[in-house]
Fold this protein.
Amino acid sequence: MNSCLQQIVACAAVWLCGFVMTPQVVGQNAAGRPLSIVVVEGQGAINNIRDRVGRDLVVRVETASQQPVSGASVVFTLPSQGASGAFVNGEKTLMATTDAQGQAAARAWKPNNIAGRMEVRVTASHQGQKASAVITVFNMAVQNAAAKSHTKLVLILLAAGGAGAAGAILGARGSSSSPTPPPAPATISISPGAGSVGPPR
């Protein structure tokens, strides 16, 4: 009995020792999930370098399960040369923090006067996790919309034969000259002629 009891105690000791020394596997928390950046606004946007106004750049930082990440640090970086611009701080780099919806934005920035394709690099970091993305935009010299519509109207009038109306509109659009009145209609006069009455010939 004593030897049997000793074997049972020895087996129990070995089992307890193995249980304590074995590492426990726990579920991965939210901080360990990889991040991703989703471009909400700005992808493929055209910045009019005539107006020097850049389109808003908005991104959303998400977890692998597409849940928004608030409080993440986001950095927007413009190209150092070529088609580029400057943020409201006058620099080519802007730092922002995501809100409750996981969004961060770069607004009211100014493109430079160089036309071309521009790649805005975006990086995000939160609790040791990082993500990056690229927003592609274009700097272009876009003609004013009002000027486009005005030119189109004049071309339509000319094509329809309304030269007088087109001239009047062009005159009215000028800032230093008065409107040009349409040409007066031509005067047609009819004079009576001498006639004779007689039998048919």
Summary: The chain has a mean pLDDT of 73. Residues 143-180 form one domain.
